[in-house]
Design a protein that fits this description.
This protein is mostly beta strands. Helix content is 6%, strand content 36%. It has three helices and 32 strands. The strands form two sheets. It has a 20-stranded parallel sheet that branches. It has a twelve-stranded mixed sheet with strand order 4-7-9-11-14-17-20-23-26-29-31-32. Residues 369-404 are annotated as: Disordered.
């Protein structure tokens, strides 16, 4: 188990060679929180930056009433740290319901600052290829509340996404969320007290490793949902993570898909294809360490595939689980089985191979339209030969250089 790089206070210096095609005119634009017009100066710096520039945030706290945006490619936003003495973008008095920072350009590095208490999402990027989120803190400081923003770190519709050494707490949907994207790495990060700690949704080719997901409602989610422009999520590896004590009651607003995630879920795979879950450490997840389910809601998308397929579970360490199942009838099942259900829960749809040496409970629901209330559970053994291993994700060298 490798868990490293979780420092939230380290301040990195990046040489010009680490930037992508930095022109000779590239410069550092320093912005201070101590000037009377600090808010305007910060947004002005993001507007005036050109390719290769570094927008450098001094130590201090910005009290922001409006969201920030960046639409210039190949720009770095670098702060002086993520703790109380670092660079803090505080949106407690934000007037609108938008995100704290929105990025819509390619080859951007976001590093070493904190975003607090946004009304909407913390940091969002859309259509931003080769984006790097590094050494960041996004937090709703009052703890889990339905009125918190939905997402902490939120890249969508992108190719080549690196999320490295971030801390997210309090998101009312997902702390770290990657949607409708390709070639993704989420590593060395800490997700605590969110509804979903880390979520990969409708995306292709992702590695989620060396993270800690704890005290969320659900630790790590791998979903594929209908009626989205990019579908057929596949090739996701979840490995070398610590997933423990995901016991926070679900505080998502009603109607959100994650509002249905049972409290006490470790890893949840829904309707995805080619997912490997291996070498993780699970402990104290009251519903299950691993759940594998189909999509059991009405939909009108003829192209959507609601079944989980080719889900492979192996070589995980399983601590206590299944002692407080958070789905209807779960408590009765646990009582009938001596106080807890097995650590791995499968609804019976699609196909899965489990080579962990622990119990597996199948709800025997091959028809994804069958309600859970009609489940007839029985322990099953899904052990079988291993499928071909998925290849690891390789990001462009320019992205990896930015976090060295």
């Amino acid at each position: 188990m490798r868990i490293h790089g979780l420092s939230r206070t380290a301040c990195l210096t990046f040489a010009a060679a680490a930037l992508v095609a930095a022109p000779a005119s590239a410069k550092t634009i320093s912005v201070s929180a101590d000037t009377p017009d600090a808010n305007e100066k910060l947004q002005e710096a993001l507007i005036m930056a050109v390719s290769g520039d570094v927008v450098e945030l001094g130590a201090g706290t910005w009290k922001l009433t409006d969201g920030l945006s960046l639409d210039v490619a190949n720009v770095t936003i670098r702060g002086a740290g993520t703790d109380a003495n670092g660079s803090i973008l505080d949106f407690s008095d934000q007037q609108g319901a938008g995100e704290g920072l929105l990025v819509t350009s390619d080859d951007v590095l976001l590093t070493n600052f904190a975003v607090l208490n946004t009304k909407g999402d913390g940091i969002k990027s859309k259509g931003a290829d080769r984006i790097v989120y590094h050494e960041l803190r996004v937090e709703w400081t009052a703890g889990p509340k339905e009125t918190n923003g939905a997402y902490g770190i939120y890249p969508v519709e992108s190719t080549d996404v690196l999320i490295d050494s971030v801390f997210v707490r309090g998101a009312s949907d997902a702390g770290i969320y990657v949607g409708q994207s390709k070639n993704i790495v989420v590593r060395d990060s800490f997700a605590i007290e969110n509804v979903a700690g880390i979520e990969i949704e409708n995306s292709y080719d992702a590695d989620v490793h060396d993270n800690i997901a704890m005290r969320n409602t659900g630790g790590i989610l791998v979903f594929d949902l209908p009626s989205l422009p990019m579908q057929g999520g596949h090739n996701v590896r979840v490995f070398d993570n610590i997933v423990k004590d995901n016991s926070t009651p679900n505080f998502a607003p009603k109607g959100n898909i994650v509002a249905s995630v049972p409290t006490g879920t470790g890893v949840l795979v829904m309707a995805n294809n080619n997912v490997e879950i291996f070498d993780n450490a699970f402990e104290d997840n009251g519903t299950a360490n691993i759940m594998i389910v189909g999509y059991r809601y009405p939909y009108k998308d003829d192209k959507y595939q609601p079944l989980p397929r080719q889900i492979f579970v192996r070589d995980n360490a399983h601590g206590r689980a299944g002692f407080a199942p958070g789905f209807p009838g779960g408590a009765e099942m646990a009582a009938a089985m001596g106080g807890s259900i097995p650590p791995i829960l499968w609804d019976g749809s699609g196909n899965a191979i489990v080579n962990d040496d622990v119990g597996v409970l199948s709800l025997n629901l091959p028809d994804v339209q069958t309600p859970q209330s009609e489940a007839k559970p029985s322990p099953v053994d899904l052990k079988d030969s291993a499928p071909a291993a998925l290849p690891g994700i390789k990001l462009p060298a320019s992205m990896e250089a930015k976090v060295q």
